[in-house]
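Same chain as my last thread, 566 residues:
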Amino acid sequence: MSASKYQRNPGPKDVSTGNRAAASADNIVVTEAMLRVLGEGGNAVDAAIAGSLVQAVVEPFMTNHTGTVTLLYWEAATRTLHQLDSVGTLPSDLAPFRPVPPFGQSYGAYPPTACIPGFMPGMKAMFERFATKPWSDLCADAVRWAESGHEVSSFEYGVNLWGLDFTTYTPEGRAFYMAGGHLPVVGEIFRSEALARTMASVRDAGPDHMISGPWADKFVETANRLGWAIRKAHMTATPPRWIEPVRFKLRGFEIVGLAAPQRQGLHTAFMMGILDALRLDRYEFGSAHHLYLMAQALRWVERDTNYINDPQFYGSPAKTFLDLSYHRHVAQVIESTLPLVDLTRHVKLTSPDFAFRGAVPLTAPGLPAAKPQDTQQAQPPGSCELSVVDAEGNWVQMMNTLQGGGIPGQVVEGVPMVGAHVMFGAPGAPIDAKLHPGYRMRSIMGNTFVLRNGEPVFSLGTPGRPNCTVAQVLANYVFFGMSPPQAVDAFRILPLSEDGVIVAEDRVSAKTASDLFAMGIPLRVLHASDWHMGSFQVCWREDGKPGVNTYADPRRCGYAGGIPIT
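reply #2:
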């Protein structure tokens, strides 16, 4: 098999239709591994475990074996949905530990905090409850690819270059990412002998190798050497949690998302309720009214859902966020803010970086680019979504991510780590936690199901700003009647910023730009398909057509494939 098969880059993707089993991931190696497991009789959870293990091998710039795992699983035999939360955790009896970068370097106001890994405990929980194949078989592709190495794509090279200051600020990071003194270039084989040994040990000894076994001993030893006084007991003090997900009804569908401490389910329910109350589909997709109302709603919901915390330790606002009357109230407030006069001249006078001809803005390609703070974090973000359906109708939508695990900048036995971007109660903190026994970190992951008549018809999820992108793709599907690929491909926006600017992918029409300026809203643009705006992996079924379909977002290197009906 030619190595060039695995040289995938962002760009248009193929739709795979009419399959008895299907899988979509951010890397063809991962999709191939999941399809192998499905083809050999494994179920969707088997495939998802194998895919997650190999993904952290071939995409160490996006995920790793110490980060976070979240899962939504439709169990076909019982018609039951299950949620697993296995975010990295913080020792409740120790002060937060943030390794200080050397040489006066800074990584933003909230540098990553070291935390106990959540990835392998999540794999173990999934395996023990739902897997059918031997653990060693599910590790086979991860071991093989760790031993052989993978071919670096232009996307991997670009992301590595973008995050270089963070990933290489320790000697261990430099040795891992820049073996030989340089970043591996496009087409070069990236391989870590230490990671290959660790993966072989995980295969032979099981997930406990990294939870309570020799790797865990090395992790604790490294932490103690750096001044983080964790003990072996901390590695298992807060196990993964199985949770009942959030469910709400909308226009003949039932939508299911991740419940607290994850924000996504309530965030999505609140957003979609507001958009429904606004009757968003009164307006043409991509029009100024569509973007204005969407951006205002995203801004409101982003703020309000920061009141969500771990419900085992805090009261929950879930009832309010699911309340249709509250949705209508917010919609009325947002709609009442539409301007009554033409504010183009205001934008012209207060936004000198915009190009105008008289009082009329130039066409959309003349719009200024978004500022770096609009689109990026101080530390590298990285996450990978998986979507899998097996021949029995079991269905997985899950995330594995480098965020939320390990010691920032360290590499233990070939496993690189990033830590948690927790902010400890800061206003607007997207990731938050409290130091109390059993407390689970609040974050926002994108795993989502859409059901009709009690059966899944669409599943979706993404890394890269799920707080604003999941609702937009759902709105495209539910309100604007787009197919899943169309809903994924359509351009996306960020929430209205505090300085009143809308940031959008650069596919906004000149008329929409002009109409937004008349509303007093400056418009800045990202790349036409910007990788910071996510990488959706989706599966769906169509009425009256056999099999399951799957698709991967063109914004990154995803690949979707299936096992055809015979």
